[in-house]
Amino acid sequence: MTAVAFPNIRPSGRSYNPGGYPRAEFQSLNGAVTTLQYGNRRFDAELQLQFDNISDAETVQILQHYESVGPTDNWVSFTTSSGASGAQSSLANYFREIGGSGLRWRYAEPPSVTSTFLNASSVSCRFVGQLDGA
């Protein structure tokens, strides 16, 4: 139950969704809508990292990281040298989910590996940010 740092490999592409707030909408018979918000913290953020043409050694680092986080209740942490690499610090803080959001990154699915050349692969990793008992 601890953070496991993602390997220091710079992604070639990244996709981020900050998640939403817990809420429900109710529509009355006359069409009026009432919205109830149940909390003030985001959940279900999504982060996808793409690593194109990285070495087999770097691919193994990602797979070993997945195996070290997968069977436990650990979560993934990113640094400015790994998942947030290449972004300005204010934006990188969102990717890292620091600053009190309470979200913890976990693998949404196993990494997807495509061998492209001899000793080169492309890897795609998808993560989901979840609140833990907050």
Verbal overview:
The chain is of the alpha+beta class. It has one domain (3-131). The protein is 16% helix and 41% strand. The protein has helices spanning 56-69, 89-96; strands spanning 3-5, 13-17, 23-27, 33-37, 45-55, 75-77, 103-107, 112-117, 120-131. Strands 2, 5, 7, 8 and 9 form a five-stranded antiparallel β-sheet that branches. A two-stranded parallel ribbon has the order 1-6. Strand 8 (112-117) and strand 9 (120-131) form a beta hairpin.
What layout of secondary structure does this protein have?
Blueprint: E1 3-5, E2 13-17, E3 23-27, E4 33-37, E5 45-55, H1 56-69, E6 75-77, H2 89-96, E7 103-107, E8 112-117, E9 120-131
Parallel strand pairs: 1-6
Antiparallel strand pairs: 2-5, 3-4, 5-9, 7-9, 8-9
Question: What features would you highlight for this structure?
Answer:
2 helices, five-stranded antiparallel beta sheet, single chain, two-stranded parallel sheet, alpha+beta, 134 residues
Question: Quick summary of this structure?
Answer:
By secondary structure, the protein is of the alpha+beta class. The chain has helices spanning 56-69, 89-96; strands spanning 3-5, 13-17, 23-27, 33-37, 45-55, 75-77, 103-107, 112-117, 120-131. The chain has two helices and nine strands, in the order E-E-E-E-E-H-E-H-E-E-E.
The tally of structural domains comes to 1
Order of helices and strands: EEEEEHEHEEE
| Low-pLDDT residue intervals, each spanning 5 or more residues | none
| Residues in β-strands, percent | 35-45%
Give the class from helix and strand content and strand pairing: alpha+beta
How many strands? 9
Assembly annotation: single chain
